[in-house]
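Reminder to self: tokens first, then the designed residues, so the page reads top to bottom the way the pipeline ran.
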């Protein structure tokens, strides 16, 4: 073999080896925005593990208990997904503002982190069928319950989580209200308890749970803005996983799984009064 041919042969061999290494990772260019990557259903099954992004501090939906185990409504759903796929599960803690990034970079295969469906988000990720209803809500101290955001004083600020629909809604509809933005739910709760803000605006599911679990706080506005739904999200273009999820959710609707999940994870917080308001079970989606 001539020297030049030998060099070409070495280059080709290196390229094949590199392709094998990266192919073994199971990551593909999903054709999404900004070079998003994803794994197909078969690649997830072959790896034996699915990576699911969840909250670790949003009780009772996704949180880590005193034993270091993930618990909550989203976790109950995630466990069933892994079981039906026949794989182990790796929960990856995410913050609200990181959910889309985690999908686009392949850090997770799926997001189950109270992800409200919006047209803007649907341009960046693909949403499966919904599994919960949601609106925004406002919680404030009993000493000064906020029942109308228009009543806030000029010096008062409202607490929000960065990257949530609450932040987007307030910027659009109440541009004059000053916002205190936090990355983590625990930080927002601490700010409310320290009196840093007059109120906390977030998903009504979250603020209702907070007020029920913490004496001294009232949800003065239980429904703000339009009703919406929460759904799993996958990387844009991951059609195989999206199709599998929609078939899975449809089957779970049929067996009443999400009512079961409510009883197992949310009933202690909300009681029976909110089950039909919160749970999506097929044609109950609003």
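Designed residues (286 positions):
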């Amino acid at each position: 073999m001539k020297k030049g041919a030998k060099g070409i042969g070495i280059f080709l061999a290196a390229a094949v080896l590199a392709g094998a290494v990266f192919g073994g990772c199971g990551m593909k260019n999903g054709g999404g925005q900004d070079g998003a990557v994803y794994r197909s259903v078969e690649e997830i099954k072959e790896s034996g593990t699915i990576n699911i992004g969840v909250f670790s501090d949003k009780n009772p939906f996704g949180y880590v208990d005193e034993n270091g185990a993930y618990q909550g409504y989203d976790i109950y759903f995630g466990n069933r997904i892994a079981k039906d796929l026949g794989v182990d599960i790796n929960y990856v803690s995410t913050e609200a503002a990181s959910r889309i990034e985690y999908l686009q970079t392949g850090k997770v295969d799926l997001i189950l982190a109270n992800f409200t469906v919006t047209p803007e988000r649907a341009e960046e990720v693909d949403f499966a069928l919904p599994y919960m209803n949601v609106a925004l809500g406002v919680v404030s101290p009993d000493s000064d319950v906020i029942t109308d955001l228009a009543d806030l004083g000029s010096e008062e600020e409202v607490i929000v989580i960065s990257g949530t629909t609450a932040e987007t809604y307030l910027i659009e509809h109440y541009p004059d209200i000053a916002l205190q933005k936090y990355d983590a739910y625990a930080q927002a709760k601490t700010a409310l308890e320290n009196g840093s803000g007059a109120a906390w605006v977030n998903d009504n599911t979250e603020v209702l749970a907070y007020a029920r679990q913490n004496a001294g706080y009232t949800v003065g506005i239980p429904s703000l803005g339009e009703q919406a739904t929460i759904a799993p999200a996958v990387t844009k273009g991951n059609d195989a996983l999206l199709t599998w999820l929609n078939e899975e959710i449809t089957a779970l609707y049929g067996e009443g799984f999400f009512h079961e999940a409510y009883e197992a994870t949310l009933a202690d917080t909300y009681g029976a009064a909110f089950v039909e308001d919160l749970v999506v079970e097929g044609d109950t989606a609003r």
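The domain at 134-228 is CATH 3.40.190.10 (D-Maltodextrin-Binding Protein; domain 2).
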